[in-house]
């Protein structure tokens, strides 16, 4: 008996150690957007794909005996989540029918389904093997985010002081690129991510947590230094979507303190900061002005910046596809179909811009546009309903840890609706599951 018990203890220790390792490498996969492996295949294999597959294999082996004895059924989610099941079935049927009609391609549809299964299931399993401990997983994410931010700050320092630097990842990823401010005084920090916008999207929940750590003495953080580095790296990204995130953060914090002196001061600080950024940062100023002038017709699309160009093209193509076909407006053309819509309409727009014509052909530049194109207004409203349904307005915990995690991810969702149309990049499903279970955990404490 003693030998059996010792063996079981060793086995439990091994599984705990393996789980701890898998936890960190899977959370690390969130930051691996720029790292892809070239096997000369028809599809791209990213490092995050491999790490998530390792987690799924671990989970399957862990429950192999239970599955064989039929004491565990992984398909019970179909019975326990009828609304989710109905939504998935509706999108799948619409996608399949549009493939038959020629509005979509089976290859593009299969690619999106595979991604949804891998990322959705993989990150759900990560929550499950950790007993849905949102705080624990967010802490892991925050710790890794600190090192990613530190790499970015180091990049900036080496550039400012004109010192040879080693944080150039272009050799290991074709997607990674270094960009500069218009006056060449600073680099736009993106650390190990492909571009500053990607950096801001993946770092935003950590940034939101960091700024709240300075506003609350009850919030548990390992180090104010960590928070300072994360905030500094975020600010020096000089990304428009990043600064929009800052203003949304200030607005959300303002709503909580609207009736206090702190709230009034915060409101004035936000107004001052907005004016300061708008008039003193050329890139920030030009992006906003260009976008408004292009959409209002005051500026030719061929002479605008790349971001405004891609957003206008994506909006125009989405609108043309939806307005020409009412069923498409309501239900979309199916998962993966935006690429088909893009090439159907791009040549009829009269655009002549060398090097820019085929940008963002797959993800529509913004999640809101892609959802309208591929799932219709119904799909967009379902997603917005999900975001509002699980938004935490108030919590009982004085430290407000779950509130900060939940609200930070809520703003991230808004930012992706404005900027990022890829369903899987920057660990989106990881944050969606954290968002959902942070709400669930808080509701349990309030009962």
Contiguous uncertain segments of 5+ residues: 1-5
Q: Trace the largest sheet across and list its strands.
A: 1-2
Overall tally of domains: 2
Helix content percent band: 55-70%
What pattern of helices and strands is seen along the backbone? Answer: HEEHHHHHHEEHHHHHHHHHHH
User: If helices are DSSP runs of H or I spanning 4 or more residues, what is the number of helices?
Assistant: 18
> What would the principal axes of the Cα set say about the shape?
globular
Biggest beta-sheet profile: 2 strands, antiparallel
Q: What's the rounded overall pLDDT mean?
A: 79
Amino- and carboxy-terminal Cα gap:
43 Å
What Rg do the Cα atoms give? 23 Å
Question: Care to count the β-strands?
Answer: 4
Supply the helix-strand structural class: mainly alpha
Beta percentage is under 5%
Q: Can you put this structure into words, describing what you see?
A:
The longest helix has 28 residues, at 2-29. The strands form two sheets. Strands 1-2 form a two-stranded antiparallel sheet. A two-stranded antiparallel ribbon has the order 3-4. The chain contains 18 helices and four strands. It folds into two domains: 1-77, no CATH class; 78-446, no CATH class. The protein is globular, with a radius of gyration of 23 Å. The relative contact order is 0.11. By secondary structure, it is mainly alpha-helical.
């Amino acid at each position: 008996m003693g030998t059996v018990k010792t063996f079981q203890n060793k086995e439990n220790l091994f599984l705990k150690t393996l789980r701890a390792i898998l936890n960190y490498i899977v959370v690390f996969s969130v930051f691996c957007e720029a790292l892809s492996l070239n096997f000369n295949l028809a599809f791209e294999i990213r490092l995050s794909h491999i790490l998530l597959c390792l987690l799924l294999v671990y989970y399957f082996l862990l429950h192999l005996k239970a599955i064989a004895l039929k004491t565990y059924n992984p398909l019970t989610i179909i019975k326990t989540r009828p609304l989710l099941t109905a939504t998935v079935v509706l999108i799948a049927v619409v996608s399949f029918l549009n493939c038959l009609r020629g509005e979509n391609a089976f290859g593009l549809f299969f690619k999106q389904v595979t991604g949804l299964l891998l990322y959705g299931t993989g990150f759900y399993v990560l929550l499950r093997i950790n007993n849905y401990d949102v705080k624990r997983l967010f802490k892991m994410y925050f710790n890794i985010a600190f090192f990613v931010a530190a790499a970015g700050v180091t990049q900036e320092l080496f550039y400012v002081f004109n010192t040879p630097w080693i944080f150039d990842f272009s050799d290991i990823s074709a997607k990674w690129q270094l960009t500069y401010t218009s006056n060449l005084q600073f680099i736009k920090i993106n650390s190990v991510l492909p571009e500053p916008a990607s950096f801001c999207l993946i770092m935003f929940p950590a940034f939101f947590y960091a700024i709240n750590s300075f506003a609350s003495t009850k919030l548990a953080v390992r180090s104010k230094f960590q928070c300072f580095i994360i905030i500094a790296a975020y600010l020096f990204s000089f990304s428009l979507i990043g600064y929009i995130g800052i203003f949304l953060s200030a607005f959300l914090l303002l709503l909580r303190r609207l009736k206090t002196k702190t709230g009034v001061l915060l409101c004035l600080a936000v107004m001052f900061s907005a004016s300061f950024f708008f008039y003193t940062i050329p890139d920030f100023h030009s992006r906003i002005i260009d976008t408004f002038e292009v959409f209002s017709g005051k500026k030719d699309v061929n002479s605008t910046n790349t971001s405004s160009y891609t957003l206008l093209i994506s909006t125009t193509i989405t609108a043309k596809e939806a307005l020409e076909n009412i069923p498409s407006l309501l239900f979309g053309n199916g998962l993966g179909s935006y690429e088909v819509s893009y090439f159907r309409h791009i040549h009829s727009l009269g655009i002549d811009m060398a090097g820019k014509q085929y940008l963002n052909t797959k993800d529509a530049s913004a999640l809101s546009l892609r959802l309208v194109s591929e799932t219709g207004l119904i799909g967009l409203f379902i997603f917005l309903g999900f975001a509002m349904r699980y938004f935490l307005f108030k919590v009982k915990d004085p430290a407000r840890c779950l509130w900060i995690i939940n609200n930070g991810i809520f703003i991230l969702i808004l930012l992706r609706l404005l900027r990022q149309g890829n369903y899987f990049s920057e660990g989106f499903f990881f944050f969606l599951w954290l968002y959902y279970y942070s709400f669930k955990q808080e509701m349990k404490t309030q009962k």
